[in-house]
Design brief:
Layout lengths: L1 H6 L4 E5 L2 H11 L4 E5 L8 H11 L5 E4 L17 H28 L4 E6 L12 H20 L5 E7 L9 H9 L6 H14 L3 E3 L8 H23 L3
Parallel strand pairs: 1-2, 3-4, 4-5, 5-6
Helix pairs in contact: 3-4, 4-5
The structure holds NADP nicotinamide-adenine-dinucleotide phosphate.
The site of NADP nicotinamide-adenine-dinucleotide phosphate has 22 residues, from loops.
């Protein structure tokens, strides 16, 4: 997705823990189009200073694309196998860090005279949880709810809040549980996902659902998503009367 954004003329400052990957990304595109910052977003206490530094170095930042994530399996029928520390690390990476980053960057985004954006990568299995991945499903469900809430809170500002819900995509996400050989062959190719997502981003869609989950057709899945969106809208209308 970062490559696509650059191809569309957007400067990307990529963030991650692996400096070699970030350096390769910048050298592929050149420093006029790409830059990078090394950070571990699960280190919540360091996020305010990270944001301050990022804004100082790149004052033209106009959108935050929160995309990092991790996914592990846990079986609570066998509690001794559940690594609770790792479970909580997953919640922190997939949810708590996104809240802290949103909080740290919002003053900058709100102060801009131009439209700005918060873009979040969620997952279909926030709406329909996958039983083998309770931390992932729950953390992304929390993220999904958070996104819906802040979108409503920011409705009278120039900050656009976008939620991308991907299907299974061929990335490194499943390496840990399945190994790279199997994990990177599951789902749709990244290029296909990026092309579809970019088209919807460009169209200005706020909730972008690509593909579906296993065992449900896209229509079956969208029936839930659309009904939920209508219910959220009704509740927002009601809550506005009390503000
Ligand atoms: N692939 C799928 O099937 C799928 C489906 C639905 C949703 N998603 C979501 O898509 C997003 C991207 O995942 P992906 O599939 O591209 O997985 P990936 O190939 O494993 O990429 C994860 C990215 O997140 C970064 N990251 C992870 N933990 C981080 C941390 N603590 N601090 C900073 N950066 C961190 C990684 O960089 P470093 O390791 O260098 O830090 C890496 O660039 C995630 O939110 C995931 O939940 C993926």
């Amino acid at each position: 997705m970062a490559d696509k954004l650059i191809a569309e003329g957007i400067h990307v400052t990529a963030v991650g823990r692996r400096k070699d990957r970030l350096d390769a990304f910048v050298s592929t595109h050149g420093s006029s189009k790409a830059s990078s910052l090394v950070a571990d977003i699960s280190d919540i206490s360091s996020i305010p200073a990270f944001a301050q530094n990022a804004i100082k170095q790149y004052p033209t930042i106009d959108a935050l694309f929160l995309n990092a994530g991790m996914q592990r399996n846990y079986n609570f029928a066998s509690p001794s196998t559940v690594k609770l520390l790792q479970f909580n690390e997953e919640i922190t990476t997939n949810f708590t860090s996104f809240v802290a980053l949103t909080h740290a960057f919002l003053p900058h985004l709100l102060a801009s005279p131009n439209p700005t954006g918060l873009i979040y990568t969620g997952t279909h299995i926030s709406l329909v949880p996958a039983s083998t991945m309770p931390a992932y499903s729950a953390s992304k469900a929390a993220l999904d709810a958070f996104i819906q809430c802040i979108r409503e809170q920011l409705r009278n500002t120039k900050v656009n809040v976008v939620h991308i819900s991907p299907p299974l995509v061929q990335t490194e996400l499943h390496d840990f549980e399945m190994g790279a050989e199997v994990g990177r062959k599951m789902g749709v190719p990244v290029e296909e996902f990026v092309a579809e997502t970019w088209a919807e981003l460009k169209e200005g869609k706020k909730d972008i659902y690509i593909g579906s989950i296993g065992a449900s057709t896209k229509d079956q899945f969208m029936e839930i998503a659309d009904k939920r969106a209508e219910a959220i809208d009704r509740l927002n209308q009601l809550l506005r009367k009390f503000q």
